[in-house]
TrEMBL record:
It holds the Pfam family Helicase_C. One of its GO terms (molecular function) is DNA helicase activity. NCBIfam families: recQ, recQ_fam. Its EC number is 5.6.2.4. SUPFAM superfamilies: HRDC-like, P-loop containing nucleoside triphosphate hydrolases, Winged helix' DNA-binding domain. This is DNA helicase RecQ. Keywords: ATP-binding, DNA damage, DNA recombination, DNA repair, DNA-binding, Helicase, Hydrolase, Isomerase, Metal-binding, Nucleotide-binding, Zinc. Its cofactor is Mg(2+); Zn(2+). It catalyses: Couples ATP hydrolysis with the unwinding of duplex DNA by translocating in the 3'-5' direction.
Amino acid sequence: MLTKIFGYDAFRMGQDKVIESCINQQDTLVLLPTGGGKSLCYQVPALLLPNVTIVVTPLLSLMKDQVDQLNELGIAASYINSQQTRQEQFQTLNQLQYGEIKILYVSPERLLQQRFLDHLHQAGVSLFAIDEAHCLSHWGHDFRADYLRLGQIKNLFPHVPIMALTATADKATRFDISHQLNLNDPYIHIGSFDRANLRYTIEEKFKPLNQLLSFVGTQTDACGVVYCSSRARVDDVAEKLKQKGFNAAPYHAGHENAHRIKVQEQFQRDQIQIVVATVAFGMGINKPNIRFVVHYDLPKTIESYYQETGRAGRDGLDAQCLMFFDSGDVPRIRRMISDNQNEDRVKVELQRFNAMVALADAQTCRRQVLLNYFNEPTTTGCGNCDICLDPPTSFDGTLLAQQAMSCIYRSGQRFGIGHIIDILRGSQGIRIKDHKHDELSTYGIGKEQTHDYWLSIIRQLIHQGLIEQDISRGSSLVLTEKARPILRSESTLQLAVPRLNTKKLFEKAAPVNYDKRLFARLKGLRKSIAEEHNVPPFVVFSDATLADMADKLPTTPRDMLLVSGVGETKLRRYGDAFLSVINRHVSEL
């Protein structure tokens, strides 16, 4: 079945055990990273079990994408949601009663409506699959209150197994998921969180718009997502990208629903290259060929960061994950978290945010930090992050530290980073003259260094606890007791050479093992077929499958079945067209 229908020659590690447990009527809890094969864990049992499998998901767009893909594989799947007409819903319910549907996607709200429950009891259910299961947990990073009622399933269908699936959940969240769903001695599978095809890069945020433009300029024709922390920033960044000639669009909850649907559909069909969005975008994107994810602002948790970066490279091909980090955001975000009235919640969220800051500050392999957080420690560098590819270089930064801290002290410890840098660089600004800071002994002593260089130095001093930012006084810089021995030359200080340009990291790509010219031709064919069938291109074949074709160069139907992602149904539908292009290409070689 795996090969015949899905086109894969083997299960990924652990999938077979999950499926076996499910077939044996055991509850299961599945933790696999985005792109790690969660869907297959319930899709295969759904075809083997006698009655319908109900997949509960909060993501309406994901329902349609999943159903389109399953239908293309010849699997009887459907969905019911509020975006359908009553006639469409009635038709689907009718198919359910006659046993014509193997997999049905619904929202948690729909599932627990009494009339729908009556239909399920009449039709019979073999399995409930709860996707995005972290939404069940009070401690989950994306808490959704509607999910809490799903604990009723066990009472309503006591003999039907439940499979809970999520991409990220720590030990407390895993326990909470099992408790909320009343899982009975579940089989728990925790897959590896190592997405080796993702390259993690974290840059100091100097001039983020220029940094973003520089980066996306290296991503020719690639699709990507840029995450921003506010709606206003989303709109601004999207507009700036469009002005520079990039095919970009904004997406956030403040836009009309019709706009959001249009953006999402165009992105799915490769008609938009870049979506600039808040975190409201992405969970429902079943798009395997996202080649980059940029965090314009610092996420609040490693779980969120991992989930959002995980939307890149789901097809297994190389993808870039870039984040801009400004240490000045840290105290502001901590204060926002602390404003919550729930003390237990504050404690957990601060702990998670501190872990996120530690990742951004890390001078060791980014992947090591991530995997250690998810209890999958490793002692070797990954070779595919900014730290491994361009290790930080240390130098004796004592003099620079003394200059910066002396400037802070002499100006009264009442000014922010920008003003201190202006003094050090000898700015002629009005504010400098108004405060007579051009008369300080530290005025202009750092003019040989750029603004961004000094910004990096001061941030490092903050990271090392020599300087604090007083958020109650406009983030004014204040010296700590740890600064005293450095200022008195009683001890020295090692700093990292500021990393002002990491563009070369994005240009270091893994060797291409397939024919790029043929790959482009196959993408063109896929696009025309997708438009004819009115589905996103990846529903026809993923980029990974096209890359495998361009590598193996199949010339017969039997050869084509050896390509990863090509099953018998897709071979019947599309095989002749793709074989024709490949054979013509081979004859030209």
